[in-house]
Design a protein that fits this description.
Helix content: 25-40%
Shape: globular
Order of helices and strands: HEEHEHEHHH
Number of helices: 6
Number of strands: 4
Distance between the termini: 31 Å
Strand order of the largest sheet: 1-2
Strand content: 5-15%
Mean pLDDT: 79
Structural class: mainly alpha
Length: 210
């Protein structure tokens, strides 16, 4: 999640006294990182870990990937209900909206019919997609960005919460890293719930209009 938040922002992501997270030149190739040696950095700007033991080059360390598009399935799992109902959305979608330095564009989408091609309960031959089925993708209008009053208001409340948390903690955390108060605090949880509810409502609107 930290890397996703940083991909939609502009470095530096670490504390002011940390080394710069970017080299001076930018390579347009995704095969050529904009950092000379990602594993030699003493900060978390160049690498990340999934379990505290392994180490991988950080996607956000590539200058050419700043303000990236991120395609999210907010239900967080395969959900193939016969009535095509939506599950609750994961709160991670709220973090991707509240935490980046700018409010990202948010394009709600509705995808339908994929379950008819490769349903989870399909029998042999499971490895073959079912042909002759129909599927569709519907796109809604951008509900995010700087012109979005709903999400900008939520982001303003989040920034106030972050400022108060910094006073309590006595320090500021790097972008994409949260204190326990910002993870589990009552106000923080309420903000993520409301933000997630707004996103789910936007997707539901696209579904109803299909």
């Amino acid at each position: 999640m930290t890397q996703a938040v940083r991909l939609m922002s502009h470095p530096p992501f670490t504390k002011p006294n940390s080394p710069s997270s970017l080299a001076s030149s930018v390579s347009p190739s995704t095969g050529s990182p904009d950092i000379a040696d990602p594993f030699s950095s003493p900060t978390d700007a160049y690498t990340y870990s999934t379990n505290g033991v392994d180490t991988f080059p950080a996607p956000s360390a590539f200058a050419s990937r700043q303000y990236s598009w991120i395609h999210v399935f907010p239900e967080g799992r395969v959900h193939q209900h016969p009535l095509k109902t939506m599950r609750y959305f994961k709160w991670g979608i709220a973090r991707l909206i509240l935490e980046p330095e700018e409010c990202p564009d948010i394009i709600p989408m509705w995808i339908e019919g994929n379950d008819q091609i490769m349903h989870e309960s399909r029998e042999w031959p499971r490895f073959l997609p079912r042909v002759g089925r129909r599927c569709g993708v519907w796109f809604g209008e951008n509900v995010g960005g700087q012109g979005s009053k709903v999400f900008e208001d939520l982001r303003a409340k989040w920034r106030e919460l972050v400022e108060r948390d910094a006073v309590v903690e006595g320090k500021r955390y790097a972008m994409g890293v949260l204190s326990d108060g910002l993870k589990y605090g009552k106000e923080a949880v309420a903000l993520r719930e409301e933000c997630t509810r707004q996103v789910r409502g936007a997707v539901l609107k696209v579904r109803r209009a299909r």
